[in-house]
Design goal:
Layout lengths: L8 E4 L4 E4 L17 H14 L1 H4 L18 H12 L7 H6 L4 H12 L19 H9 L3 H4 L18 H13 L5 H7 L4 H12 L14 H7 L1 H7 L18 H13 L5 H8 L3 H12 L14 H12 L18 H13 L5 H7 L4 H12 L6 E4 L11
Antiparallel strand pairs: 1-2, 1-3
Helix pairs in contact: 1-5, 3-5, 6-10, 8-9, 8-10, 11-15, 13-14, 13-15, 17-18, 17-19
Length: 403
């Protein structure tokens, strides 16, 4: 069994030199688990047998879905997590009951015991490893069937056909679902999107959201100047010049004029259901609708606030900045991800996304992740080779001078 020793330099078990970890003289309470003695590790093993082994195993390798491996995990990190459960920082769970009556010393010793064990083996790669799907390319492929009506990049040139660029993906998916459910009536659209899954709808929405916005190319009738004067009540929801700031509300800038006027008529006669739009459209005659349509068709559409999704390689490069190369952290308080259970990593990322776990950095990172990103990252790190880390004392500069 390995003894963990206090220090200022982390060394990987493989023998490769790691980056220095600066531990200040008089190590803080948060790092106590890093420098326990072999006697304390033995005491941690005794406590683990009673309080932890049923779920995590005496060898620290979990055989239960949703329960993490602890073997070879960073000791200070384990101690910190145990204390968050003990003091109720996390939502109540089985862990709360398991650690409630353990002392601070007991938590330190248990953390050090599991950290001293050999890490688990990495998960086996799948028998067939498909190339990581690119959601943008998948959206482009699925949108090919839409190009005949809506334009290759979502810029319509056919009167009566809406442009699809400049729309937030959330609005686009909601519109697709409205056609699928029959809330919006259009036989052709219902047949096109009827078999479209939610995932494909999101990919198509992403593709259109990332295309360069341009005005619809069909000519617009009506008086744009009169339409501008009539557009004041619309700005509160659809934004100045028809560029919406709300994901749930469509931008109108650059939209095909004939389609726009037809949509207003549908709200007015009840074919489209929306109480607010019905109230506004009911006050408009056909000429006012054409004027509004001409005004908005003349406005320049803007791209929605949507970023290109990161590839798996781009995500892992970002994660490795804190968690170490291939998920092998050398920082005492940062967890090793390599060879961790994939289902556990998925669960933790979802908890950061929902706010159940608190971390400013992790909340910011996970908020940008799709469900696909979460699954791919978890599977990737589960397959990486884990590296054990020990910490050794490095005397302060000049400590031995004159001796």
């Amino acid at each position: 069994m390995r003894t963990l020793v206090a220090g200022m330099l982390a060394v990987c078990a493989s023998g490769a030199a790691a980056q220095p970890v600066q531990l200040q003289p008089g190590i803080a309470n948060e790092l106590r688990a890093v420098y326990v003695t072999s006697v304390e590790i033995a005491e941690g093993a005794r406590i683990a047998q009673t309080a932890c082994a049923r779920c995590h195993g005496m060898n620290g390798i979990s055989a239960t879905k949703g329960v993490p491996h602890l073997a070879g995990q960073r000791a200070a990190y384990l101690d910190l997590q145990l204390r968050t459960y003990r003091y109720g920082t996390r939502p109540k769970s089985a862990m709360t009951g398991a650690v409630r009556y353990l002392s601070e010393d007991a938590l330190v010793n248990v953390a050090a015991y599991y950290a001293s064990l050999e890490p688990p083996r990495p998960a086996a790669p799948p028998k067939a490893t498909p190339a990581s799907a690119d959601p943008l390319q998948a959206g482009r492929d699925a949108a090919a069937a839409c190009g005949g009506c809506h334009g290759e990049t979502g810029v319509s040139s056919t009167p009566g056909m809406p442009s699809l660029v400049g729309l937030d993906p959330k609005y686009f998916v909601a519109a697709v679902n409205a056609y699928k459910s029959g809330q919006r009536k259009n036989d052709m659209m219902q047949s096109v999107v009827g078999a479209m899954s939610e995932e494909i709808a999101k990919e198509v929405a992403l593709f259109y959201a990332l295309q360069k916005p341009a005005r619809a190319q069909a000519p617009a009738g009506g008086d744009a100047a009169a339409g501008k004067a009539a557009a004041a009540p619309c700005a509160g929801c659809h934004g100045d010049a028809g560029v919406s700031a709300s994901p749930a509300t469509p931008s109108l800038a650059g939209q095909d004029a004939e389609y726009f006027a037809a949509a207003l008529r549908a709200y007015k006669d009840g074919a489209r259901k929306d109480d607010t739009m019905k109230s506004l459209a009911s006050a408009l005659d056909d000429r006012a609708m054409r004027d509004l349509a001409a005004y908005y068709a003349a406005q320049q559409p803007q791209p929605p606030n949507v970023r290109r999704p990161y590839s798996l390689a781009e995500w892992t490069e970002r994660c490795d900045r804190c968690h170490g190369a291939n998920g092998n952290s050398i920082e005492p308080q940062v967890p090793r991800l390599a060879a961790q259970r994939a289902d556990w990593l998925e669960l933790v990322l979802e908890e950061y996304r929902s706010g159940a776990r608190k971390s400013t950095a992790m909340a910011a990172m996970s908020a940008l992740m799709s469900e696909r990103d979460v699954k791919e990252l978890a599977a990737y790190y589960a397959r990486q080779r884990p590296r054990a880390v020990i910490y050794i004392v490095v005397p302060p500069a000049g400590a031995n001078r004159g001796k």
